[in-house]
Amino acid sequence: MPEAGTLDQIVASKAAQDGYLRTSWWWIRHAPVIVDDGRIYGQTDLPCDCSDARVFSGLAALLPRNAVWVTSHLRRTQQTADAILAAGSFDTLQIVEDKDLAEQHLGDWQGLDRREFLMNRTQEPDSFWYAPADERAPNGESFIDLIERVDAAITRVTEAHRGKDVIAVVHGGTIRAALAIALRLQPRGGFAFMIDNCSLTRLDHYHGAQGSGWRVKMVNYRP
């Protein structure tokens, strides 16, 4: 009698049988920033609000116990990771900081009134961002620049920890970039995704002798 299982389970089992290693990326956007005074902050190093213990308990319950943890160098991601770790029983002793996983550097736009800035820009219905993908903020980055450095970080971390779980507590722009990479979208395609604070996005990377690719398990899940 054939072994039972969902399509996903069967495909994953066959991939493992064929020698593919799965590296699971658990992407989490940091907790809300409430001290921004309505201003664009980008890579401004602001703290976040980790007061809602239920949110972190919900996230902790979903995450693997023995995983590699990474954050950006900005404290809001580190504070969020610490709050999740405190809410669960994890085997993690170290969190690795990676500057390439930071939010898009919005240059001279950082510190400007967010509403005033957006109301004076042409907006597209499928965009949740500040500017077109190829527009570089003055003295900052474009979304394409962000995708390139996030891609480098993903490649580096995946190669170092192939076959393991990676929990990445990062930023909304970083996760949109990761989705664009996984789905092989044109850069502006990443703008179509809404990524909420403390939401979970799961992307699985499969690597084997015949090549590599991604599977999307969930996007913007809020426990």
Q: Would you give an account of this structure?
A:
With 223 residues, the chain is an alpha/beta fold. The protein has a single domain (18-221), classed as 3-Layer(aba) Sandwich (Rossmann fold). Helix content is 31%, strand content 19%. The protein has helices spanning 7-17, 53-62, 75-87, 114-119, 143-160, 172-182; strands at 21-29, 68-71, 95-97, 165-170, 200-208, 211-221. The chain has a six-stranded mixed beta sheet. Helix 5 packs across helix 6. The longest helix is centred in the last third of the chain and has 18 residues, at 143-160.
Lay out the secondary structure.
Blueprint: H1 7-17, E1 21-29, H2 53-62, E2 68-71, H3 75-87, E3 95-97, H4 114-119, H5 143-160, E4 165-170, H6 172-182, E5 200-208, E6 211-221
Parallel strand pairs: 1-4, 2-3, 2-4
Antiparallel strand pairs: 1-5, 5-6
Helix pairs in contact: 2-3, 5-6
